[in-house]
Amino acid sequence: MHPDVDRIIVTKEEIAEKVSVLAGMISKDYENRNPLLISVLKGAFIFMADLLREVTIPCNVDFMAVSSYGKKSATTGAVKILKDLDCKVEGRHVIIVEDILDSGLTLRYIINYLAGGKPASVRVCTLLDKPSRRQADIRPDYTGFIVPDEFIVGYGLDYADRYRNLPYVGVLKREIYS
Ligand code: IMP
Ligand code: MG
What we know:
Elements: E1 5-10, H1 12-29, E2 36-41, H2 45-54, E3 60-68, H3 73-76, E4 79-83, E5 93-101, H4 105-115, E6 121-129, E7 142-146, E8 152-153, E9 169-172, H5 174-177
Parallel strand pairs: 2-3, 2-5, 5-6, 6-7
Antiparallel strand pairs: 1-9, 3-4, 8-9
Bound molecules: inosinic acid (IMP) and magnesium ion.
Residues 43, 77, 98-107, 151-153, 157 line the site of inosinic acid.
């Protein structure tokens, strides 16, 4: 285990098993609908890559990159779009693929933004959910694991752009960020 990690909460094997279950559900629910999977960089890129390889139906993939507007975004979730989608979402069945759903403010902003493009439907698939921290009323349609209110890293999730490469999800030692 990495010395900065206090404990592992989801192992590499548990992630792989769950990713396969989620991809199975999506493949069944979206048969003949050619869904468009969208994730917001960078946190969800590993989950997206693994999920996609287990999806067995035709689908497309796109990415957005956003940055928050600093302090103000802590309450409104307003973000600046650094990289917009390449695809049009009009008439498409969109699945937002997230690493972790925390306050839900960023996702609420993105869902509203996508709605402007008139998609046929929008659902959310998140690997991790911290429901105790929710501020916006966002309920994921597909959830991997419910996690406690602690700072988590690994499998794409970072602290100061580090630890994304850990193959498991773990709690970062408090002394690293306090
Ligand atoms: P929200 O708008 O508060 O839901 O922010 C969600 C985003 O914050 C996620 O996509 C992550 O990038 C980041 N985030 C939230 N909680 C954690 C955590 O415990 N570790 C690492 N990143 C996190
Ligand atoms: Mg992040």
